[in-house]
């Protein structure tokens, strides 16, 4: 873009970018939305419709930022790959300003790039997906390419051939890809992303563009083949991910990206090749499609219309009982503390879930993992009714990750918390107990209650209900009973107060849905809002405990 944009020709730049990119982009979105309406259940199709609407606004990155993480496969995301085009489109909007401001001021270019890089690395330690999806935190990578184009090449062409240096940089990129293991949800710049690996690859790519590659490689059969693939790369990029996710679709299983056998892998390769070729020849390179900006505008409107119309049509094929089952995935509270809290207080270890209570109202701290996240809305409602403020951790793995025991104890003291409720999945609960948090809480005079893990199952609950309809599945037994029993024994031996959600969910036999057929779980272990409401009686008992403890303290004083 540093080379293509002619300063002052803003409208012409936007017209050429739109005509080049939008037709194939919107055709991909439209076909994916239509295909998913036939191939998937409404629970997954609704997710595709949401993705189509964000794609219509050229803001796919923002839509996926509102989900969990790029690296999570729990959502059904056949259009996930469009996040990078969202970043690219948003960058195009500021290209004229970038060129005007930075073209003649290399020091300013460096300063802006460094600010973006420092912001990205800092954000990785706070919210990795924000660093991943947001254009300002990716700007440093665009500016690295612009700097190479403006100052180290001749209008984007190699000025001084140093093929050995370019080959070494390419080798470094391949080594990083092959051997550098990153964790997209890690909160450190070494293993997190975009972190150190992204910085190395970005700089190495600029080195390749600056010094070129050996002619023997460029002119080899492999080099010519890769150049040809590069000509098709946009269509391949657009087509490959929807084909993979739709072909491997299994209801209630999120995005499956790995094929199960060689035949399936070959079939996927053939389908991706055919879809890419059709998109390339019939849309990307066809003059009637790619030569006019108006085509892109028309397809934008068509994309929005198809997305809005297809969801009701998809749902019309099912009765109310079926739709109640299929609604499980959307029967969830906002993830963690909601996006606004993360934006306004990105470094906060806690957020307050209750509102409109006096600042001096007694506060409780809910500590846990994704299972605590699933019940937080119900707990907040019960706490508010009883006059308690409820604080909640905003990280993925408190105590066993970050924030640590000491940090949480300090936060609880700072916020004036009178007690702590622990609620972890059975797989994490034992590790948390071994940290000795209960001892640290007692030493800090914090009243601690452990809300034991909920029953969990070997299979996804909505899938069980769907396959058994119109009847209920029979003989459904939780698979974590022994683990919870062992944890209960350890907690009682340590004199930790416990309360059991099994009394509400498994009174005589375990329940996995309400009378109307709404599932209590949206997967195999996480409660829906409907499921969490079943625990409000136990939550009230927990609050009774804290009220009695407060009265005892008051009487002693």
Write the layout of secondary structure elements.
Elements: H1 10-39, H2 42-56, H3 60-65, H4 83-102, H5 106-124, H6 128-133, H7 139-152, E1 153-154, E2 157-158, H8 163-179, H9 196-211, H10 215-218, H11 221-247, H12 262-284, H13 287-290, H14 293-315, H15 320-326, H16 339-344, E3 350-352, E4 363-368, H17 370-385, E5 389-393, H18 405-414, E6 417-423, H19 426-434, H20 437-443, E7 447-451, H21 461-468, H22 481-493, E8 497-499, H23 502-505, H24 529-533, H25 536-556
Parallel strand pairs: 4-5, 4-6, 6-7, 7-8
Antiparallel strand pairs: 1-2, 3-5
Helix pairs in contact: 1-2, 1-11, 1-12, 1-14, 2-14, 5-7, 7-9, 8-9, 11-12, 17-25, 19-22
What does this molecule look like?
This protein has a 6-stranded mixed sheet with strand order 3-5-4-6-7-8, with helices on both faces. α19 (426-434) packs parallel to α22 (481-493). The mean pLDDT is 89. It folds into 2 domains: 10-315, no CATH class; 339-556, Rossmann fold (3-Layer(aba) Sandwich). The chain has helices at residues 10-39, 42-56, 60-65, 83-102, 106-124, 128-133, 139-152, 163-179, 196-211, 215-218, 221-247, 262-284, 287-290, 293-315, 320-326, 339-344, 370-385, 405-414, 426-434, 437-443, 461-468, 481-493, 502-505, 529-533, 536-556, and strands at residues 153-154, 157-158, 350-352, 363-368, 389-393, 417-423, 447-451, 497-499. The protein has 557 residues and is mostly helical. The chain contains 25 helices and 8 strands.
């Amino acid at each position: 873009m540093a080379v293509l944009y002619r300063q002052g020709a803003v409208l012409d730049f936007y017209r050429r970018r739109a005509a080049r990119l939008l037709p194939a982009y919107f055709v991909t979105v439209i076909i994916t939305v239509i295909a998913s309406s036939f191939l998937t259940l409404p629970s997954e199709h609704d997710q595709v419709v949401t993705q189509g609407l964000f794609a219509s606004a050229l803001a796919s990155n923002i839509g996926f930022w509102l989900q969990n993480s790029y690296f999570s496969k729990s959502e059904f995301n056949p259009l996930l790959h469009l996040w990078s085009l969202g970043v690219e489109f948003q960058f195009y909007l500021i290209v004229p300003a970038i060129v005007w401001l930075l073209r003649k001021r290399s020091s300013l270019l460096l300063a802006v790039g460094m600010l973006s890089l420092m912001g990205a690395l800092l954000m990785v330690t706070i919210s990795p997906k924000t660093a991943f999806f947001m254009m300002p935190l990716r700007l440093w990578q665009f500016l690295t390419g612009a700097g190479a184009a403006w100052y180290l090449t001749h209008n984007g062409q190699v000025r001084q051939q140093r093929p050995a240096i370019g080959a070494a940089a390419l080798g470094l990129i391949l080594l990083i890809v092959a051997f550098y293991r990153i964790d997209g949800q890690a909160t450190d710049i070494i293993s997190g992303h975009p972190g150190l690996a992204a910085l190395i690859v970005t700089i190495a790519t600029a080195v390749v563009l600056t010094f070129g590659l050996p002619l023997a490689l460029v002119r080899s059969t492999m080099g010519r083949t890769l150049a040809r693939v590069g000509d098709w790369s946009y269509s391949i990029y657009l087509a490959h991910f929807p084909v993979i996710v739709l072909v491997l679709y299994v209801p209630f299983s999120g995005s499956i990206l790995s094929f199960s056998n060689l035949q399936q892998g070959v079939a996927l390769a053939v389908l991706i090749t055919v879809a890419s070729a059709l998109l390339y020849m019939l849309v990307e390179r066809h003059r009637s499609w790619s030569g006019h900006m108006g085509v892109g505008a028309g397809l934008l409107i068509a994309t929005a219309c198809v997305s809005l119309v297809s969801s009701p049509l998809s749902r019309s094929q099912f009765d109310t009982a079926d739709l109640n089952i299929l609604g499980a995935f959307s029967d969830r509270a906002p993830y963690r503390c909601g996006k606004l809290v993360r934006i306004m207080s990105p470094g906060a270890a806690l957020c307050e879930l209750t509102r409109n209570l006096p600042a001096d109202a007694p506060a409780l701290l809910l500590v846990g993992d994704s299972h605590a996240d699933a019940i937080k809305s119900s707990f907040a409602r019960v706490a508010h009714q009883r006059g308690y403020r409820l604080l909640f951790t905003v990280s993925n793995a408190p105590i066993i990750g970050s924030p640590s025991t000491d940090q949480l104890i300090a936060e609880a003291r700072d916020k004036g918390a009178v007690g702590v409720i622990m609620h972890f999945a059975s797989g994490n609960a034992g590790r948390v107990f071994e940290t000795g948090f209960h001892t640290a809480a007692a030493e800090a005079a914090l009243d601690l209650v452990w809300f034991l893990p909920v029953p969990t199952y070997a299979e996804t609950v909505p899938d069980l209900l769907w396959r058994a309809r119109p009847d209920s599945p029979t003989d459904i037994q939780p698979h974590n009973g022994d683990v919870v029993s062992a944890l209960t024994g350890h907690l009682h031996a340590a004199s930790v107060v416990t309360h059991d959600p099994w009394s509400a969910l498994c009174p005589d036999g375990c329940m996995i849905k309400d009378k109307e057929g709404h599932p209590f779980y949206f997967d195999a272990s996480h409660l829906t809002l409907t499921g969490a409401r079943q625990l409000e009686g136990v939550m009230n008992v927990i609050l009774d405990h804290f009220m009695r403890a407060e009265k005892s303290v008051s009487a002693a004083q």
